[in-house]
Amino acid sequence: MEATTHTREPTLWHRDKYANEIGETDYNHELVIAGWVHETRNLGGIAFILIRDRTGLLQVTAIKKELGKELFKEFADLPKESVVAVRGMVQPNEKVSNGFEILAKEINVLGKAKTPLPLGVSDEDKAELDTKLDTRLDSRFLDLRKPNIAAIFKLRSSVLKAVRQQFDAEGFIEIHTPKVVATATEGGTALFPVQYFEQKAFLNQSPQLYKQIMMASGLDRVCEVGPAFRAEEHDTVRHLNEFTSIDMEMAFSDEEDAMGVLERIVQRSILELVENNTEELSDMINQLAEAIRVEAQKFDDQTDFLIRNFNVGIDSIKNTFDIKKLDQAIEKINGLSQNILSDIDLDKMREGLKLLAEKAKTN
Question: 302-319 pLDDT, tens per residue?
Fold first, then answer.
């Protein structure tokens, strides 16, 4: 039986290419791009609109004479984060960061954004620092449009891709184990209870039991990338309540074999990021550098505040207390300290510390 392929009829507003796919071979050709309005600059008879898709930014140039007065005004006055599709000619332009622009011929406004927006997207660094976490979570879809936030998901995707590729190269079979279970698969871990029809069940905290069962099946090497749940109290933003677990199980092997596989997975993941995610890594590094700078400034401000208040406090103490009595009290404390030290058998202390050190090594 011959394989058949079905081609879709081209439609006017079907995206032809992403921003990072457009190159010199597209110059003087017409295509359709789509995305979100990032920035606009209206100069009267001409307007420059930056359109953002998941791969980057591109400039659309709208000319009033070409589009007509009404369409030009609608496009030039669009609020940020409105969704548009643009059909136009790709023209080289050295003044634009990516070397080209789109001369708009037709525009389709797919969704007009409401104003004001609950949080900013175009100035991601300032928006990130000034916006409260609750606001970001309430409008999470907007928050995820920021390049530095989207970078987290792209990096994560690349890592998981590399993990699966290395597992495949090592001869592992990917499995998916149950996540709703009747009882714990590991001892000593609190479980999240769920109502499973008329029965009580739990969210699974580990695929360990099922991986070991698979070893008895003869598959030899299995792996899983999936969610795990642990009902453990936490005091930090990083916790184990719900996390993505990368698991593997190997038959006829020892710990050296297992560590070798894991080391190669880490190596491949790092290579994947370095080779294919340099832009996202740069965003993350810049974000980290900015956060460090802000925290350092806060620390400097707090240090100055403490020093100023400490000096004021010292002056206040000097004015309040009888310094002579304070000196007498300090001398008395020093005398007591000397008496305590003279009663300590230093040889016995050394023997005790040596014994503790040996026990620590053993344990």
Answer: 666 666 666 665 555 555
Torsion region of 8: left, alpha or beta (phi above 0 gives left; psi -120 to 50 gives alpha) = beta
Residue 154 and residue 283 in contact, taking contact as beta carbons nearer than 8 Å: no
Which residues on adjacent β-strands are paired with residue 202?
Answer: 181, 193
Q: Identify each DSSP E strand in the chain by its residue range.
A: 30-42, 46-53, 56-63, 83-92, 100-111, 173-174, 180-181, 193-196, 199-203, 221-229, 242-250
Report whether pLDDT(25) > 90.
yes
Is residue 63 very low, low, confident or very high in pLDDT (cuts 50, 70, 90)?
very high
What are residue 232's DSSP bridge partners?
none
Given a contact cutoff of 8 angstroms between Cβ atoms, the answer to whether 246 and 222 are in contact is no
Residue 251: which region, alpha, beta or left (left: phi > 0; alpha: psi -120 to 50)?
A: beta
Give the integer Cα–Cα distance in Å for 293 and 296: 5
Mean pLDDT of 311-336: 58
Angle at 110 between CA 109 and CA 114, to 5 degrees: 85
- Tell me how far apart the alpha carbons of residues 101 and 93 are, in angstroms, rounded to a whole number: 6
Residue 68 φ/ψ region, left for φ over 0, alpha for ψ in the -120 to 50 degree band, beta for the rest: left
Q: Collapsing DSSP states into helix, strand and coil, what is residue 17?
A: coil
What angle do helix axes 255-276 and 278-320 make, rounded to 10 degrees? Answer: 100
**Residue 194: which residues within 8 A CB-CB, separation 6 or more?**
180, 200, 201, 202, 203
Residue-wise pLDDT for 151-199, tens only, equals 999 999 999 999 999 999 999 999 999 999 988 766 656 889 999 999 9
